[in-house]
Structure formats: C-alpha cells, structure tokens
Amino acid sequence: MSTANELKAKGNEAFAAGNHTAAIDFFSQAIELDPTNHVLYSNRSASQSSLKKYTEALADAEKTVELMPAWAKGYSRKGAALFGLQEYAMAVATYQEGLKHDPESALLKKGLSDAEAALEQEKNGDVGYGDFANQMANAFKGDILAKIAANPKTASYLADPEFVKKVRDIQANPENMSKHMGDQRITMVMFTLMGMGDIFAKGADSFMGEAAEPEAQSPTQPKPAPKAKPEAMEMEEDASEEDKEAAAKKARAAGAKDKGNTAYKARNFDEALVQYSNAIELDSTDITFWNNKAAVYFEMGKYDECIETAEQAIETGREYHADYKHIAKAMGRIGSAYSKKDDLDKAIEFYNRSLTEHRAADVLTKLRALEKLRKQREEDAYLDEAKSNEARERGNEFFKAAKYAEAQAEYSEAIKRNPSDPRNYANRAACLTKLIALPDAIKDCDKCVSLDPTYVKAYTRKANALFLMREYADALDALEEAKTHDTDKKNSAEINQTEAKCYSAISEQNSRQTPEQAIARAQANPKIAAVLANPVMQNILQQMQSDPRAAREHLKNPAIASNLRKLIAAGIVRMG
Predict the structure, then answer these.
(1) How far apart, in Å, are the Cα atoms of 412 and each of 115, 378, 394, 424, 435?
(2) Going by C-beta distance under 8 Å and a sequence separation of 6 or more, which residues neighbour residue 260?
(3) Under DSSP, is residue 228 helix (H, G, I), strand (E, B) or coil?
C-alpha cells in the first residue's frame, strides 16, 4: 500500500506531465491517508485550477489556509481560484491578506497586481474572458494545418497523427478544446496562432507550471503572460523540519496575540502583557505584536516602557517593511505617552512624525489640542503685570512723540504680559486709529469694554474710528454708550464734540443728495433697508410726519433711537 508521500510524488509527476486529472486522483488518495497535510490540499488546488475547476480549487485552497493560516502559499492558491471565478475583489483581498504573512512574496505581489488590474477592467467594462475564449476558438478556423506547418515552432508537431487528430477535433467543435489542453502542443499552437507565441520563449514547461499559479495569467485575462520567465508552478514537497518549525512558531505567535487581544479587551493587562510577550518571543518580526504590547504598557500607566516598546515596533517595522500605518500607530502611541508624561514638545514631535507616515484623524486632533495647550502655557508663562505696566508706559512715551508704530509694539507687548488690563487695549486702539488701522482699532475697543464695560474712553475712541470710516450712525451709537457710563461727566466735552462732528458730517452729506437719491441708496444698504421694513419703525415714522414732537418720546427708547440715527445718517429722516 502506497504512503501519502508516495502518492503525492506520483501526483507531482502527473501534474508535470500535464495529466491533471490523474494528479487530482493521486492527491485525493494522499489526503485520505494524511488529511491534515496542508501541502496536499495546496497541490490539489493547483491541479483543479489547471482544469479550470475553480470552485473545487477554492475549496482546497480554503482548507489549506485553515490548516496553516500563516503559510503564504495557501493565500496564493485561494487568490488564483477566486481569480478564475472572476471574483476579482475577493481575490484582491486574499492576496493582501497573504502579504501580511509574507510581505516579500513575489507570487502574492504579482497575483495582487493581476487581480487589481482585472478588477479595474471589470469596472471599466473592458474585454473579459468571453472575448478571449472566442479568440482561442477563432484561432483554429481556416487552413489550420498549413498555418502550423508554416511556423518553425509548430511544424514538427504534424509528424504525430494523434496531434493532427486533436487539431481536426477542435476544428470540428471548438468546445472540444478544453479536453485537449493537457497537450502542451495544442496550447503552443493556440497561442502562436493568436500572435502570442513568444509566451513560450522560455519553454512550455514554464508556462504549464505558471498556469496553475495565481501569479500567472489567469484564463479570465486576455493579456499574454510576461516575456520574462515566470516562476513555475511547483508541487510543494513536505517542508523541511526548519521550515515546519518556523511556520509552527508563526502560528503559535498568532494564537498568543489572539489571547492577548482577548485579555486586553477584558482589561486584564497583566495577562495581555504575558501573551504579547510570548508572541514576540515566537516571532519578533511582526510589528503588530510590539504595537499591542506598547498599548498594554500605556493602559497600565507605564509610559517609559510604552515608549521603549513602541520604538522597538518602529525599528522592527522599518527592518521588515511593515505597512506605514503600523509605523504611524507606533509613533502616535509614543506621542500619547509623552503627552501623559506632560512632555508636550516630545509629544508634538512624535504626533507630527506619525502624520508624515499616515494622516490619521485622531492623531491630528490630538496634535491640534496639544499645540493649543502649549501655546496657552507659553502665554501664561509670559504673564507679568509689572513688565506689562512698564511696556505700556514706554508705549505712552512713544505715542506722545508721535512714534505710533513703536507705540503699537509696546502696547502689544503690554497685552502679552497682561491681557486682562483694559487700558492696554484702549491705548493700542488710539495708536491704531492714528495709523489708520481702523477695523483693528475697533476690535481693540470692543475687547476693552468686554473687560470693563464702564471704560468710557473705549467708546469714544471707537466712535472716532467709526467717524473716520464714515459710519456716522454707528459712531453716534458708541457715543450714546459713552454717555451712559460717563456718570461723572469727565468725558462729556469730548463726547459732545464728537457727536457734533457726526451730525455736521451727516448734514453735509445729506446736502449733496436729494431725498430720492437718499431713498435709492438706502434701499441698497441692507442695514437701512431692514430698519425701513420694520413695522414698528414704519408706524413711528408715520407718527413723526403728523406730530414731529412724537420723536422726542421715541428717542427715549435706545433701540428706536439707534434706528432713527441710522435713518438720519442715511438722509431718510432730516432734522431741523
């Protein structure tokens, strides 16, 4: 009775001879004797793919992966079967999963590239397998024997009567082509007649070996295989003891990681640490094991250990070409650990480094928060009331000397040293008005009264800036605020003088336009148009027309008074 290894060897020989049906039979017998040998399922999957039995090939490939999850070849077989079934998206995902276990596998990379290209063709509605099958059938139409005889590569085949019989059988019924594909000469003729004979430039054996590989040209791809010699599809022999041990270690490492993940989710950090350490001991090349261990240290509050472990993760990832996202995660975790240690500079440094690897939204949010916190701390550290007062006094001296740019710089320094002193903003507003930086002057006045609503000079300086901007109604509103807070009447002269200037400017402005022109301009001004559309204001204006004395009563209401001043400034209401 044959052993599993003997049957496997016979299967390999049958496959090499192109007798895939026999190969499947031998591998099946071997599986009955050794049902846990992943190599047997892998080889049978390749044989099934060679016969285009992709559903059966997929089942064998999935069994291969089940038995040996860390073995990259299993994913290669599965990807090839899915490719044959035209499940391109699933093939892409399978090759990507395989590359996680063997990032350097040329077979997996090539298979992934082919699957992605086929998926793109499918999306774009490009030529598919149906057209390719028609091309193969059309290749055998016409005086096929003459064409074969005319080609030096195929002429010698005609000496075999059996070959000629097969060609005539395909001519009679193109569907019979599949049963003769085991004869490499038929395949050679087909591709030669289709203008792709150079695919055999390196020999038919290489092509037949490649045909069963996911990295080779799939039957669903109309494009020829690369001219460079493809990697032949080999029937895997039993791995060496060293390879078996390496694969077993990877499998045990993956199991330890899974146990660590379970413990981590249960917040059993001590157990998680043990399991991740076991995984690293079994396979120190996987960056995810190091990253997970660093995460445990972080949750345990052991930030120095977290940083050290994450740095090892980065080193491992660089050495073994890990996905940049994993490296970014390690850098982000270092940043978080430094943040917990209150080392903001280091935390910001590593967050920025993480973002150069991969722009993750959560890391960006943490970076922005730390940058804001660092800025606030720097500002707080700069606070000094005494130095603020000194800077303001220097600003006052520059202002008196009409050196307004120098004065502005000193007032800004005073604000940095003491941003809660309203005098600093009021003084800088006066300086900015001199420099005709009127919008900025108004902002400083608003900031001043937000700190001290009774600061009368802030209102008068705002009124002066608004006057220069010809916003007379708003200037008058600011002066009304100043009157409200000028309880000791110390600023009444300045307020009255500025108010008189505003009304004089309004009078002069209105004298240069007719009432009709004023109305037309008012309708183009959203603020004035809103006042005119207000039903309350419409009633008040009607009352004022019949009884001008009614305006005095209405002016006692601040909101109505403000609206009336807007209408006066616009020339809609004329006094006197």
Answers:
(1) 63, 16, 11, 8, 15
(2) 271, 272, 273, 274, 275, 276, 279, 292, 296
(3) coil
- Whether residue 354 contacts residue 311, with contact meaning beta carbons closer than 8 Å, is answered with no
How confident is the model over 283-299, as a mean pLDDT? Answer: 94
DSSP notation for 240-253: PHHHHHHHHHHHHH
How far is CA 261 from its chain centroid?
Answer: 26
C-alpha pair distances (Å), 299 with each of 13, 117, 305, 331, 368: 57, 43, 11, 16, 22
Q: What's the pLDDT score for residue 262?
A: 95
Q: Is 496 helix (H, G, I), strand (E, B) or coil?
A: helix
Residue 226: predicted pLDDT: 38
Dist CA 419 CA 428 (whole Å): 12
The two structure tokens encoding residue 298 = 């972080």
pLDDT tens readout for residues 24-68: 999 999 999 989 888 899 999 999 988 889 999 999 999 999 988
Nearest alpha carbon to residue 128 among 15, 257, 222: 222
Give 545-575 pLDDT, tens digit per residue: 777 676 677 667 788 778 877 787 777 776 6
pLDDT for 527-546, tens place per residue?
877 877 888 888 877 777 77
Chain centroid offset of residue 238 CA = 43
Determine the 3-state secondary structure of 465 from DSSP. helix
Dihedral (CA of 308, 309, 314, 318) sign: positive
Alpha carbons 188 and 64: distance in angstroms, whole number: 32
Q: How far apart are CA 228 and CA 113, in angstroms?
A: 16
d(CA 434, CA 407): 11
What 8-state DSSP symbol labels residue 199? G
